[in-house]
Amino acid sequence: MNKTRLLFCMMRQKCDMVSMLHRAVQEAEGPADGKRGGYVKTPPIAARLLRLTFVSGERNTLEEWVRISGDPRVMDFFIERLRASSRYRVSVVYRNKFSAVLRIRHRIAEHCLRCPMIYLPSGVMPKTVILLPEGKLVELIAVGRGQVEKLEEMGFEVLTNGGINSMDYMITPTQESALIYAYRRGYYRFPRGVSLKKLAEELGMSISSLAELLRKAEAKIVEAFIRHEMPHHLVYTVLRKAVKEREREEVASVPV
Questions:
Q1: pTM for this structure?
Q2: What's the CA angle centered on 12, arms 11 and 18, to 5 degrees?
């Protein structure tokens, strides 16, 4: 039996970057009205941790690369707050209206060493770490028995717990072959270099079958883009799924 699990968890331990995200939201939107609890709506900002490393030659310094996305006003407040702090050195590597990539250097605090990118039990790999105004949303791959219990003991709140095959946004080999062939033949150029009918003939498929195959692959590529480039939308999707799973469990536990 495959014991590999794909988990989404929340961490609510102290984190200076999380605190700054929280303050940026307050400055941009005003005090919370109590209706946003659990992020029923898409969060106003999120920061996906791309890379975390100790800086060579600089004692007690960490370098973080993050992709932030969300409300442009909240993003501006967050960047301004980082720049105003003597603890941080910030470079905006890339910026568009709704997302940006930041390179951030800062002194190490004790709680930094509890970051899931650094400190996890053996057999657990962080796949995605997203900083939010309320904590850290962490996607983990866990191999072996007892890992979920270990994570809970460390303070992780498990939101979803599925098999590794729940990574259903990965395209299949058949979808990949058709997609790459269509790309190389110019199907995605404008104007198109080849028609769907011609592609179907070359691949020995019906037009409807090829159209469905490409649409499913394209939908997964959009999902992958959202996961990697727009983390605040991913947060909404994950937490909405967690709420629905909790509701199903509560219904199932009610005596008939």
A1: 0.79
A2: 100
